[in-house]
Amino acid sequence: MKLSARNQISGKITEIIKGATTSHVGIDIGGKVITASITNEAVADLKLKVGEHATAIIKASDVMVGV
């Protein structure tokens, strides 16, 4: 599948924490972890499992930087 989003970062799933309706999926991208909040249904549909490869796809209208 091709996507228009250019911010695609590959990594390995480190954790999946399921809540009532939403799961937090941690993806290690080389020593740093990106956490995505997605529905439990999406976790099941994508058959996500800890240790498997995944890609974080980031589409945002704003990115803020602070120092």
Automatic annotation (TrEMBL):
Keywords for this protein: Molybdenum
Q: An example of a Gene Ontology BP annotation on this entry?
A: molybdate ion transport
Q: Where is the Mop domain?
A: 2-67
Entry superkingdom: Bacteria
Q: Which InterPro entries is this protein grouped with?
A: Mo/tungstate-bd_C_term_dom (IPR008995), Mop_domain (IPR004606), Transp-assoc_OB_typ1 (IPR005116)
Q: Does the keyword ATP-binding apply?
A: no
Cross-referenced PROSITE patterns? MOP
Task: Spell out the SUPFAM superfamilies in the cross-references.
Answer: MOP-like
Keyword Plastid attributed: no
Cross-referenced NCBIfam families, in alphabetical order? Mop
Protein name (Swiss-Prot/TrEMBL):
Putative molybdenum transport protein modE
Organism for this UniProt entry? Gluconacetobacter diazotrophicus (strain ATCC 49037 / DSM 5601 / CCUG 37298 / CIP 103539 / LMG 7603 / PAl5)
